[in-house]
Amino acid sequence: MLKAKPSSPKTSTGRWLTALDGLAHLYRIGNSAVRGQVHEEIRRLADDDSKLVSAAATDRLQSVLLQHPSERPDQQSSAQPTSPPNATAGLRDHSTASKQVPAPTPGPVIDAEASAALEELYTQGLAALYTDRWDEAIGAFRAIVARDRGYKSSQAKLEQARRGQHLSSLYATAAATEDLKTAIERWEAVVAADSDYRDAPTRLAQARHDQAIAQLRTEAAELYRANQWQAVVSVGERLRQLAPDTPDPDGLIASAQTQLNNAKRDQTLAGFYRQAVHHMEAGKWRLALESLTELHRIGGIGSSFKDSLELAARAHRELTRTVAAIGRARLSTTIAVPKAATAVAFNTGGTQLAVAHQAKSALIVDLSGVEQHRLRHGGWMTWIWDVVYSPDGRFVATAGEDKTARIWDTATGTELLQITHGDQVRGVAFSPDGQRLATASIDKTARIWDATTGTELLRIAQDQALGVAFSPDGRFVATASADKTARIWHATTGTELLQITHGDQVRGVAFSPDGQRLATASIDKTARIWDATTGTELLQITHSDQVRGVAFSPDGRFVATASADKTARIWDATTGTEGLRGTHTSVVWGVAFSPDGRYFASCGDDRTVQLWHLREDE
Asked: What span, in angstroms and rounded, lies between the C-alpha atoms of 319 and 306?
């Protein structure tokens, strides 16, 4: 039996050899009808693939046919032997072969030998099919279908082989494509044809992943050329997620990050510079020096801030001058008031004083003591416990024993707003923007109000509240209480953030200008300074009697105290060193610094306000 020789699955010649071997075998064992069908199949194969058939395939079939001559299909009963038909004519000239090969005629069923040949060819086709030798499989099943279209599942296997060949071709083309967009289209075609074909879904996902990375890198380059540093850095974050091993192969992201850091650094330096200038304009030399020191620490001694060293030198001179002057402070004026004075405050410009006292009113006076306005509360012998200016100096708030807090126009002395508690109001404070007023009352509440309408915005429950203060940024409010505590609250939600404890009632609270520290005054004979975030005690100052009031200097370097030991004192807020002691003839209730740091005032039961000159004008 003539058997098919091995052929390459990569070439059309291999496919032809397999098909021709099968057809030659059928030709050898078949009758005239079978041979006619073989001729027809040869002609059809020649029509399909004549240009791809090699001479070797043609010669093989011709040699087989010559070794096994038979009758022509149109001479079934001839007694004379004839030469075998030119079976290979259609291979070399299929147009001629198609004219020479007659149409097949029905014949008897092939014999057992032919059936065995079909079975062998079917087995060869299956082997080729399941080892992805698509050309061989197609050739084998084509030959079988040409002989018997219903033989087993040859027709289905032929379609399966053709589909496999198509998928294999698509896969190979996609795998060889370097352009990502085209590769994605081809991988999508493979997956559309067979969603589970080999690793095509994985390759498609990888191609899409690579395309996303390439797109991000292109966009990063475009943004970099446009100096959009923050955007480039943001793209870099995405690239780090998609390509953690190579997020920045060309260094653009790192360069953009450097540029962004430099820009932020410049902004920070400019911020410190502006702060320093602002503090110097307000005479807050210590804060100005701190801002300039930070600017220099970061590295801001450059062309943009070339005068920063000069400004720092000036701030240092002024600060030294102020410190030295405190030790040599002179009593400038003693202002008499009608009754015991319980609180004193400077206006924004440091040109006026507001004084609370026990005679149902508060006074507004100039620095020489000349009365400008008298702010009258109702009620017989009503004490005014506290007084404070609004940040812009246009208004004054007072706290009264008559259960009210009131807001007054400083230009006219006219009452603008009255707020009522359930018992004495002991403390008042404006927010930094002047829009809110905080009050402390022995009705066991501290409250925050709209300073224009009098609408209550927040109520904080606490044992008798004796003092209140806003933080410099207005976000927090501190209270002093008869329950021996001072507490810091969120000024919007009322959430308690910090609680600190003395040995007795706390009578006064004050935030440092930077909001980082809280000073407290207690009748346990101490004033203390605390970290406003952690509650850590930073400094303790001791008097020989109750401490009734406390205040920070505008630069935060000093803290002043008012005591029942008849003294008002100024202390170094870091070391606790005493710098100034002013003496009254009775209990001292209140102390205050002017906003420019030039003056210091104290008031007490001796019905006087003492005004101290801390440093001379320039």
From this structure: 21
